[in-house]
Amino acid sequence: MSAIPYDATRASLLNPQTKPTVFVPGRAVELRALCVEAARLAYVRAEEGGAALEELSDALAIVGFDPPSIFSDATTGSQGYGAFRRSDSLALLAFRGTEPDSIADIAIDLQVSLTEWTESGGRVHVGFARAARSMLSCVTNWLATTAASRAKVVMTGHSLGAAIASLLASACKADQLLTIGCPRVGDAAFKKTLDAVEITRLVDCCDIVTELPPEIGGYVHCAPMTYITSAGIVDSGAGEAFIESDRAAARRAYMYDYAWREGNVIIRDLADHAPINYVRAVFS
Asked: What residues have CB less than 8 Å from 229, skipping those under 6 apart?
């Protein structure tokens, strides 16, 4: 059972960076948990420098990383960071998801037509492609310099950040990709460009963002989902019947336990998208 409680608050959904890191000095963190928390930490506005950059640097230092390099593009509103860990030569890249107060982010999400992803192949979401391309030169430069001695490249992100990570994992030939709350990114031809990448696609129970955009027009997911049950347990072998039943029970329980409380998200389908509820599942 996770020590982190389920969080139905609007604050955790809309401002994931407000909670302090769950990394603890002296406690080893396996790669899946590392990526999920790294994706949540991508919401820390380190591009502003000062205390925010220090907060991110301090959190990553707990798990052995050098100070991060910050990636930011004002035109698309896209952000992310790269962090290198010398102890195992791990290059970790994490990208920020949609910020509700960012017009640029919302505009990116709404551009749902498909376009050619010439960086590797297939057709992908126009808005996601624009965001990923705005990060590409920073990422390739960082990989060629700061992370030149890397043994492994791992990319991660939440929501829009997961979509950006998926596109850049394809273009930059990442070794591993872990997404949380990832929407559909492209078509079957794009999915094929990720065949050599080890992918974990985490889906928290009712998370509605993972069902967007709809499959109309050729959209598919890049990998099978690893399901997180309503109780916050990662179940990689969950079947369709179990998932359908678990989601239905979760929605009913949410109405009684959370929906009516002041400050909470009204429906579970949105509350489950909060990054902290993914963190809850992988930190026991």
From this structure: 205, 235, 238, 246
